[in-house]
Amino acid sequence: MVPVDQVPIVFSAGVPVERRAEVRAAPHFRRWLEQAAGRFDLRRVAVRDVVFFGARVGFILIEADAWHEGRQVPGAALLRGDSVSVLVVLHCPGHAARTILTREPRLPVACPDLLALPAGMLDGGQLVSTALRELAEEVGADLTVSAAQLVELTTVWLSPGGCDEAITLYAVDLDIDPGAMAALEGRRTGNRDEHESIHVHVIALDDIPCIGRTDAKTLLSYHLYRASLSGPAARPEAVQS
């Protein structure tokens, strides 16, 4: 195998020369390169295109000449880095357990109103701090959650046939009063600098499987939470009507 610092990296003409050093140094590119070089016979990496989000290196489309056990493997990949999501389970006296979903446009799947859990990309940060930041941005800073309250459900790759992204799923149980819960419904949030337009919705936790087409993190988080010993079995009020 070729040592990682000796793997040839070439760029297409469409990637600005003055920004190629940033691409090489981007955390998600470096991580992928180190792991790929350590596990495959990685002979060459061609950076076909890069999407920059202002000063930040965003999506990186690469095509690698990679081999495993003497055979070449498919080499195209979209590198975008890892993400986190949070299943917030609200416990309000006299009500079944509720959860918080965001509704926002998702152009890649041509869906203008996708309902899903609050989530976001790491962008070089740490898992827990990113999870707390995304909750504050997408739900509101008045929803008080500490790092110690977050329970990690699992980490999974979302589309390993074409993308490097792994998502870490968290859950958190929160006690809330009726007024605070009502104040969450319908509020508009999002990071304007990232062109986010988010509507917050509070629904019954057990309605998640019935909301229609959603994403993998939302369904998986729900089922893992329901299966966990620290979930609703320990919270009798969650099953009240």
UniProtKB/TrEMBL annotation:
Keywords: Hydrolase
Gene3D superfamilies the UniProt entry points to: Nucleoside Triphosphate Pyrophosphohydrolase
Catalytic reaction list: GDP-alpha-D-mannose + H2O = alpha-D-mannose 1-phosphate + GMP + 2 H(+)
Residue stretches making up the Nudix hydrolase domain: 79-227
Cofactor: Mg(2+)
Source species, domain of life: Bacteria
InterPro entries noted in UniProt: NUDIX_hydrolase-like_dom_sf, NUDIX_hydrolase_dom
GO molecular function: ADP-glucose pyrophosphohydrolase activity; ADP-ribose pyrophosphohydrolase activity
UniProt-listed GO biological process terms: nucleoside phosphate metabolic process; ribose phosphate metabolic process
Family: Belongs to the Nudix hydrolase family. NudK subfamily.
The protein's name: GDP-mannose pyrophosphatase
Lineage: Bacteria, Pseudomonadati, Pseudomonadota, Alphaproteobacteria, Acetobacterales
